[in-house]
Amino acid sequence: MSATSRERFQSSLRRARKIAVLTGAGVSAESGIPTFRGAGGLWRRYQATSLASPEAWQRDPGLVWEFYNHRRERALGCRPNPGHHALARLEARFREAGGVFTLITQNIDGLHEQAGARDLVRLHGSLWQVRCLSCGSVTENRGVPITPAFAGSGSPDPETRARRFTAAELPHCSCGGVQRPHVVWFGEALKESDLAAAAAGVDGCDLLLVVGTSAVVYPAAGFVPLAKRHGALIAEINVEPSAVTSLCDFVFTGGAGEILPSLLDLAPALAP
Ligand code: OAD
How far apart are alpha carbons 71 and 76 in whole angstroms? Predict the structure, then answer.
């Protein structure tokens, strides 16, 4: 990262009154959570729609739960990395100075929350919440395995024809209904209130940080051109170019866990 680019960025950060941050899987990569599209990414190994879509659920809810149980198992031992912590510190410092800060994440792993993020919009839901298909109630559930039947089930194999789990082995609500992961699947709409909160955070922001996302999934990726149209400066932190790099005023190449602390913590206190 060149000193001038970093200094120009930090001077923009110092002047900003409203900041938005959009994060993707890359911010959690250094915590040990796999991304989707890069080397070792989930969608390199699995076809997304065979595990994360309403059709997949219709076909075999046990297979879908096996996939999410496996992701929960992997995420359970993961901790926020210095990138998550740097964003949480920026939020706290920025708020204290009277600024408006919105963190918009596509991640479902819960690591921003663990690091202390407060004003967080989880566009794609949470790995740690389940939703009842009968009564609609959303509950926290950190159980791994999700039910005893899933103990040691490992990673799913969508090619297997035989159903491995019965309806009785799926998680159930106290009302008796079957529970599904409270996440957004391919082909599903995002929650209106989340979209509105994200749009409000981006609207009129002085600076948008785009961290660790390939920016190919909409509507999340659309917040970058939206911020640009509204005159915000855009800074990208990523190990490689993304679909929105050409819109960015600052591009910092490297791991979020390494770049964010040095970029954000060195920024002088916000002007009064
Ligand atoms: P992707 O896997 O598409 O992109 C991850 C991005 O992180 C890439 O641009 C990598 O270059 C970058 N990256 C990898 N390691 C990094 C590091 N240490 N520091 C910074 N950047 C790093 O993941 P997303 O963009 O989050 O949606 O994917 C968006 C959505 O697609 C996900 O929320 C998920 C997926 O399908 C749903 O499941 C609905």
Answer: 8
- Residue 37's Cβ-side half-sphere holds a number of Cα atoms within 13 Å equal to 11
140 pairs with which residues across the strands?
A: 129
pLDDT, tens digit, 9 for 90 and up, residues 107-155: 999 999 999 999 899 999 999 999 999 999 999 999 999 999 999 988 8
- CATH value at residue 148: 3.30.1600.10
The residue ranges of DSSP E strands in 1-95, in sequence order, are 18-23
For 183-240, what is each residue's pLDDT tens digit?
Answer: 999 999 999 999 999 999 999 999 999 999 999 999 999 999 999 999 999 999 999 9
Residue 263 C-alpha to ligand 1 middle, in angstroms? 20
Sheet architecture: strand order including 207-211? 120-122, 100-105, 18-23, 207-211, 233-238, 250-253
Q: Which of 163, 183, 203 is the last residue of a domain?
A: 183
Task: State the total domains in the chain.
Answer: 2
Q: CA-to-CA distance for 61 and 172, rounded, in angstroms? A: 12
Question: Residue 257: which domain range?
Answer: 1-33+80-124+190-272
Is the beta carbon of 26 within 6 A of some atom in ligand 1?
A: yes
Opening angle at CA 187, ends 181 and 193, nearest 5: 70
Residue nearest to atom 32 of ligand 1 (CA): 106
